Amino acid sequence: MLFSLIENLERLDIVLASVSPRRFELLKQIGLEFKVIPSDFEEEIQHQSSIRDLVLHNARHKGLFVAEQNPKALVISADTVVAIDGQVLGKPENEDDAFRMLQLLSGKTHQVYTGVGLFLKEYEGLKLDTVCTNVTFRPLSEEEILAYINTGEPFDKAGAYGIQGQGALLVERIEGCYYNVVGFPLTKFFLMLKEFMKHYIIG
């Protein structure tokens, strides 16, 4: 397993500060052993100076909330948003909102940003980084949008689609990390973790 290459990792409890089923599944897929402790931090949805700053802010505070309560654990946090022309698209409130979002994305390129955080409170350890993937939708007819909404898939997903499900049929191409669009950039996470753990000797 690749995680065996990371020094001292086996000495730590690992906590995912997220209840996202997609992040849970992705981390299990790569063989990481962890437990889930959700963060009570209420994430912001309006970006500050930039959308990168927004996802970094949310990832930082989600992780810090859980790290304060679990100082000896390695805490992983993340925040993912979908944006087009500087506008952040959250999870749709209803069918009309989902239709509006999908019509907005139709035939255009949008961005998926994820902020990733690593925390080791006992050692005052903190590392944050971001990933951005460009996603281009093919032009969608109203009939296709309504049919996709009727699958129920859009309603728990930012931007009203899931690339790992039937939403894959809406996507023409992507530039960047596919897993970032699903909800967690696995390669970036592994490289961050490998670098992060070099700085600590866990007794």
From TrEMBL:
InterPro entries: ITPase-like_fam, Maf-like. Keywords: Cytoplasm, Hydrolase, Nucleotide metabolism. The keyword Disulfide bond does not apply. The record marks R22, T80, Q164 as: Important for substrate specificity. SUPFAM superfamilies: ITPase-like (SSF52972). The keyword Hydrolase applies. One of its GO terms (molecular function) is nucleoside triphosphate diphosphatase activity. Its EC number is 3.6.1.9. GO terms for cellular component: cytoplasm. Its cofactor is a divalent metal cation. Its main location: cytoplasm. It is found in: Cytoplasm. One of its GO terms (biological process) is nucleotide metabolic process. The active site is at D79. It catalyses: dTTP + H2O = dTMP + diphosphate + H(+); UTP + H2O = UMP + diphosphate + H(+); N(7)-methyl-GTP + H2O = N(7)-methyl-GMP + diphosphate + H(+). Belongs to the Maf family. YceF subfamily. PANTHER family: BIFUNCTIONAL DTTP/UTP PYROPHOSPHATASE/METHYLTRANSFERASE PROTEIN-RELATED, BIFUNCTIONAL DTTP_UTP PYROPHOSPHATASE_METHYLTRANSFERASE PROTEIN-RELATED. Nucleoside triphosphate pyrophosphatase that hydrolyzes dTTP and UTP. May have a dual role in cell division arrest and in preventing the incorporation of modified nucleotides into cellular nucleic acids. NCBIfam families: maf. This is dTTP/UTP pyrophosphatase.
